[in-house]
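It is worth pausing here to work through a concrete case rather than discussing structure prediction in the abstract. The textbook approach is simple: state the sequence, then state the predicted structure, then interpret. We follow exactly that order.
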Amino acid sequence: MTQKIEIVGRDFEVTERITEYVTKKVSKLDRHLSMIDETRIELTYVKSARSALDRYVAQMTVRGKGFILRAEERADDIRAAIDTTLEKLDRQVSRYKGKRFNNRGDGKSAAEVVDIEPETLAEFDQEEAPVIVRRKEFDLIPMAEEEAIEQMKLLGHDNFFVFYNAKSGAVNVLYRRRDGTYGLIEPRVR
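Step two, the predicted structure:
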């Protein structure tokens, strides 16, 4: 196993058994995608969850060169939350790996191998590619994080708000979390 695994507990004590369980399960991801540098697992116990089925939260972030994959699941048992999160992450790894690495290996493109007219090939490409249906431009005004929260509320943006952080001098994304608190994304260029 070449990846670094970090396990963090929030309102939850991470025992040695849980650590072994998570490490064993996460190491299986390495078989599917060997370019994983680090995996961060955040295990949380939410005492005030509306449903008992949402008390345990497992959030996993997998980082490698050129990609970041993230999954989060909730369950009434920590092991169930871990398992469903790993299943979700495994599907994401398969999807990522399929997009990036599936080829025949002979160096020929699909158009060279298959005798299909170029017009038909273009139709296939159009069906599979995601379509951007709307573009939006707006002016960024430098503001503090508290101002951004207030602006987000005033605009009626429920999920996220993009702003220029006057303190850090960078573009940030403010988002509302499930529990009603806010998160801040501060991008870095590598």
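Step three, interpretation. The helical segments are 16-27, 29-32, 78-101, 110-113, 118-128, 145-155. The chain has a mean pLDDT of 80.
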